[in-house]
Amino acid sequence: FSAAIVITEQPISVSVPVGYSFALRCRAEACTSLQYQWFCQHQSVCCQIPGATEQDLLITAQQTQLYTCRINDIYKNAVFSNWVKVEVHQRIGRGLLPQLWRGEPVIILNPIEQKVEVGKPLQLQCAAMGVPAPSFQWYRNGNVLEHQKKKKLWINHAKVSDSGTYLCCASNSHGEHWTNAVDIHVGEPSQPTSGFNTLIPAEHLQFCCLVFLLATDKVALLVGNNHYQHHPNLMAPVTDVFDLSLLLKQLGFQVVSLLD
């Protein structure tokens, strides 16, 4: 006869900068003594962590990985904790993280203003660090978008009614933080003028307008590609674009930032 093993404290997902040290915690109860063993998974490969047999797993963040803990009793019964994600941000701009950070949400990527043609996809993106990892909620014109609760807001076929001012709230048990508000305009495609056989994409048109209007100023175009057809998704380009954008603005550049 053996009684059930009950997990009383599950580990939590976190989103932290590279080099940040913290502990994943797991607690369980049973009528017998218990043994703990932590596992990690990276790029679909799951492995046991040597020596990780304590209730707390001490980590210095190096790369994004998944973790779980197995708990055994003396009767060889075993249960696993929830899988949790340790999301690691490789490059964080100076001054973004408070000196005495307690884990409250910190926005590290803001959405970008866009002009989108009717029927084309609309994608907005943000990112935030936090311990626990923040949850996300998008708003349009101050109204909650019920089904937009991820870092990426995605609308397959944009409508004119999707135009408006968007922003996202990142929140966890320590508080909440809001992204910048951005204006999104969804309209009919522009008609080609004589000499042009194809329509100019909205992002390119926005950039060309800036070049003509600010011809005497310094203009920087930053393009960050995260997703490649034949290569694993990258993590650094988004934060690279954000960091470079801040730096170039301080140097007096007008900056246009595009993703993917």
Tag the structure with descriptive keywords:
6-stranded mixed β-sheet, 10% helix, Immunoglobulin-like, elongated, mainly beta, 3 domains, 260 residues, single chain
Q: Could you please describe the fold and organization of this structure?
A:
One of its GO terms (molecular function) is cysteine-type endopeptidase activity. Keywords: Disulfide bond, Immunoglobulin domain. InterPro entries: Caspase-like_dom_sf, Caspase-related_regulators, Ig-like_dom, Ig-like_dom_sf, Ig-like_fold, Ig_sub, Ig_sub2, Pept_C14_caspase. It comes from Nothocercus julius. Residues 216-260 form the Caspase family p20 domain. The structure is a single chain. The protein is mainly β. The chain has helices at 202-213, 236-250, and strands at 6-9, 14-17, 21-25, 27-29, 34-42, 45-48, 56-60, 65-73, 78-80, 84-89, 106-109, 114-117, 122-125, 127-129, 135-140, 143-144, 152-155, 164-172, 175-178, 182-187, 218-224, 253-259. The strands form seven sheets. Strands 2, 5, 6, 8, 9 and 10 form a six-stranded mixed beta sheet that branches. It folds into three domains: 6-89, Immunoglobulin-like; 106-187, Immunoglobulin-like (Sandwich), CATH 2.60.40; 219-259, no CATH class.
